[in-house]
Amino acid sequence: LEILIASHQAAGGVVLLVTRTFPHQRTDVLADLLGQMAKAEASYKAHRDYKAMVKAFGLVGAVRAVEVTHGANGWHPHVHELLFLSLAVVVDDLEEDLFRLWQGAAVRAGLPSPSRAHGLQVQDGTHAAKYASKWGLEAELTQWHRKRGKVESQTPFDLLRRVFDIQDKHAAALFREYAEAFHGRHQLQFSRGLKKLYAIAELSDEELTQRQD
Predict the structure, then answer these.
(1) Which of 86, 151, 199, 200 satisfies CB 3.0 to 4.6 Å to 195 for a cystine?
(2) If we measure between CA atoms, which residue out of 135, 123, 122 comes closest to residue 4?
(3) Is 145:157 a contact under the CB 8 Å cutoff?
């Protein structure tokens, strides 16, 4: 992923990090939230204004990750997406336009209306590269479970640590809910043809573990 970003920027392209989320509450069921979020994502991407926007800026491809934390207001699913564009953009203007589209899509999917402050954020290539660095070789294979949440929120593996450290039954139930909801999901989703464009090889886990980087 880091090589992909560097290759695109070296070719004169722009990489942006877009984060999308929505309000949530303690009584929400994670699987239901993910289902509604998937509907919102589909509606957002299908909107004619979104298609016109990414066409105008020359969207080459995207890499998407769905993550979740748990805090005082329950499950907090959010999407991080790297957009690989051909042309430069005014980040603040793009953020305003994309937020409007995301807000409408979320409401149509039955989700609470996202706030302007937290619903959608667009960050430049510096933040994109910083985000990508956590998905390096070691992290992709073995280290995701070591990522820790903020004080007010916990990652699923923070919850699992509570099970082993203090036999927290509530944390165990939450981790099971997470495991069932995310079973079979890809950590990272690459748009078709993006890796091939920059000759990024597809390697199996076994091949990756044998590499001496």
Answers:
(1) 200
(2) 135
(3) yes
